[in-house]
Design goal:
CATH topology of the largest domain: Rossmann fold
Number of domains: 2
Distance between the termini: 55 Å
Shape: elongated
Largest sheet: 6 strands, parallel
CATH superfamily of the largest domain: Glycogen Phosphorylase B
CATH architecture of the largest domain: 3-Layer(aba) Sandwich
Number of helices: 17
Radius of gyration: 23 Å
Oligomer: single chain
Length: 449
């Protein structure tokens, strides 16, 4: 395979951008981490403001008491956070804070005195537009004082733009900061943060300089659930990956003994693990020898382990728990098929566009994924991967079998997938688009009040 030409060096900028997210660094949200690192390579100064401090979570078995879970949730004990090594150099630049301290209270009082109309209007908007949604209302009120504190820090640092990841609480915080301090903002809408609850979505979109959605499917969803005028603010810019980090030997001409499936996903309903297990059971019943590696953890792990035992797959399906990126890359280079069996849930939760698909495709690993949400925009059936209907274990098993048996199909898909990811989803491409959008809309902003 010919070596692609080296990309042009990133253009430099002198922008200062605030980033708000729920937690940082999260092992499952590498797209935020590597997006920030790519922006910094372009010279963007990024101030990172998580609403909560990330802590290592304890995954309880189903029988754990509510009291035990509550004690762990409320515990202030410092626990080791599992993180990607690339996140550690950023930690000194992360502005961690409790939701409320005496200092935050004093900042809020000063701002209330300084600009009572803007302060009270922002607080009223959080209440009025989230009535009917206990989650958004309580979350908005709980994070309001911290949002004012973040806005004050951004104003004093000279930030020219603010970007929030996720359309729920982080976007609400950005809305408050914009209302009170006048700093232009944007936010990224992903998947469930848009689909489960649309309270205040129209107001967040209309107040934003622009709204980044990660797929055309997401753009259509937001356009349908907000005002007609909102559509002019919607921009499709997918998440990206550092494709060079996943380069390795193509898996087209070798199949392991036994063949190895890989699934990298947090263990909750939307990821569709049970359908993967059923597909594995079908393949084994048809006489295939295989193993399936599961990377990730989550609240459904206990239930999933029971399901594996029920299907008699205990020696074939291996729970590896959480892994950092270097370990995941190594697993991708050892596996034969990446499976992403996403499903819609009863609560309306759906995937947006899983970054792990881009990673597997860049690593030369053929993928099988559900034809849902933005996935078909990346995984083109029989061109860059295979698509199956969600919740269809028979179709999933057949697709896996095709990729294990048909070497020509594997070669074609691997080549098509690598070309697609390198051309459209590389972080250098994505960070250039984001930097341009930040610069354009910061120039239009009204400036800090």
């Amino acid at each position: 395979m010919a070596t692609p030409p080296a990309p042009d060096p990133p253009a430099r900028t002198s922008m200062r951008v605030g980033y708000v997210m729920s937690r940082f660094p999260r092992l499952t949200e590498t797209f935020i981490l590597y997006e920030i690192l790519a922006l910094k390579r372009r010279g963007v100064q990024v101030d990172i403001h998580p609403l909560l401090r990330e802590r290592k979570t304890r995954v309880h078995p189903d029988g754990a008491s509510v009291l035990r879970k509550a004690v762990d949730l409320l515990s202030r004990e410092e626990r080791e956070v599992v993180m990607h090594p690339d996140a550690r150099p950023l930690l000194p630049q992360v502005h961690y804070s409790p939701l409320l301290t005496w200092g935050i209270a004093a900042t809020n009082l000063r701002q209330l005195v300084r600009g009572p109309r803007a302060y009270l209007a922002a607080l009223l908007a959080i209440v009025r537009h989230n009535l009917g949604s206990p989650n958004y209302l309580l979350g908005g009120l709980a994070t309001f004082p911290l949002a004012i504190s973040i806005g004050d820090k951004l104003r004093r640092s000279g930030a020219t733009h603010l970007h929030a990841h996720f359309a729920n609480h982080p976007a609400a915080a950005a809305f408050v900061i914009n209302r009170v301090f006048g700093i232009p903002y944007s936010f990224t809408g992903h998947g469930a943060d848009l689909q489960v609850d649309q309270h205040m979505l129209t107001e967040k979109v209309e107040a934003a300089s622009f709204v980044r959605v990660i797929s055309e499917d997401g753009r259509q969803f937001v356009a349908t659930h907000t005002s007609p005028s909102s559509s002019t603010r919607l921009v499709v810019v997918p998440c990206g990956i550092d494709t060079a980090s996943f380069d390795g030997d193509a898996a087209a001409d070798r199949i392991g003994t036994p063949p190895t499936l890989l699934c990298v996903a947090t263990m909750y309903e939307v990821k569709g693990h049970p359908y993967l297990f059923e597909a594995c059971a079908r393949l084994v019943a048809a006489g295939r020898d295989l193993r399936c590696l599961l990377v990730g953890d989550g609240p459904d792990r206990g239930t999933l382990e029971q399901e594996v035992a029920r299907l008699g797959l205990g020696e074939r399906i291996i729970f590896l728990g959480q892994r950092v990126r270097t370990e995941i890359v190594a697993l991708m280079h050892q596996a034969d098929v990446l499976v992403v069996p996403s499903i819609p849930t009863s609560s309306g939760r759906r995937e947006g566009l899983p970054v792990v698909l881009m990673e597997g495709m860049a690593a030369g690993l053929p993928v099988v994924a559900s034809a849902i949400s933005g996935i078909p925009e990346l995984v083109e059936h029989e061109v860059t991967g295979l698509l199956v209907p969600p919740k269809d274990s028979e179709a999933l098993a057949n697709a896996i079998g095709r990729l294990l048996d048909d070497q020509e199909l594997r070669r074609s898909i691997i080549a098509g997938a690598r070309g697609r990811v390198r051309g459209e989803y590389d972080l250098d491409v994505i960070s250039a688009k984001l930097t341009g959008l930040f610069e354009e809309h910061a120039a239009r902003g009204v400036g800090a009040r």
